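Anyone able to model this chain together with 3-isopropylmalic acid?
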Amino acid sequence: MTTQYNIAVLGGDGIGPEVIAEGVKVLDAIGKKFDMEFEYEYALIGGCAYDQYKVPLPDTTILTAKNSDAVFLGAVGDWKYDELPPEVRPEKALLGIRKELGLFANLRPAIVYDELVSSSPLKPEIVSGVDIMVIRELTGDVYFGQPKGVEVIDGKRTGFNNMIYNEDEVRRIAHVGFKTAMKRNKKLCSVDKANVLDCSRLWREIVLEVAKEYPEVELSHMYVDNAAMQLIREPKQFDTIVTGNIFGDILTDEASMLPGSLGLLPSASLSDGSIGMYEPIHGSAPSLRGKDVVNPIATILSAAMMMKYSFNNDEAYQLIQNAVKSVLKSGYRTQDIYTDGCVLVGTQQMGNLIAQEILY
Ligand code: IPM
Ligand code: MG
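re: yes, here you go
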């Protein structure tokens, strides 16, 4: 029997729609293989939404997302919106949709495939075999804390944001961290800045409380500055990492250099409810738009995460992973991961190759 799924497709700005198109090719291939039928509902988000509606996250887009089984998102932002007031900047839409859908848990795996060890700027012996899952809290922290703003205080223009977490917010992300670790190698590293920040001290206290419910998990704590260094020095010491919004934002860009390109890292953003959102961790790269040069693999692997986390289809997840690996093994590379002797392909050809491999 064919199962139907509604997917809200939000391509966004810059290269977003291009990489999403390749992701949709892969979803269609998966649909054929597994008797799943995907209905796509397209909606605008980011700068393109602003151009049409004067807001970056229109109500219709929120509604489309809320009525879907999963959201598939490209990227938002373009320098042409840099002068807009903060409230209507494209990035605001991303924060808005995370908040609207309650997507507090952001899963960002950094896996170094054997085929790509040479694409990393780091030495092969450091990166080969790396398989890290970063759990980033996504709806709190300085991203959303009040008060915030730029005001004149004591005659000086002063900018401020508030790093704030309450215990419930820390507890629920800690549980995601421990549960994820339980399914992996039962090693969890909680990253904070408890030597300086009060907010981090509470974070650590709560993580320690939650740890009592997971006696099998080996828990460690690391300050974020040290974690940034250790990720490069010896990434294989990490299995699962759990951290707050801003630290997770920074560490996952850093972690993308283990496999060697931002174009390889997917993400899943999950809530307590049923809707998940899937997007590459890279941005909209407006200067590369329309050139058919960017890597769609991060987006395609995000579609794989959708199979696993929204549709409970581990087999489809694995099939997409394997298809990506086998295309890489055959030597095909987009320019961001190109090394001598490989076959240079564009965005669309990479998508075609992976989709074909799935159908094969
Ligand atoms: C990310 C991005 C976003 C963030 C920006 C575009 C708002 O960097 O998803 O990592 O900071 O969360
Ligand atoms: Mg980021």
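DSSP finds twelve helices and 14 strands in the chain.
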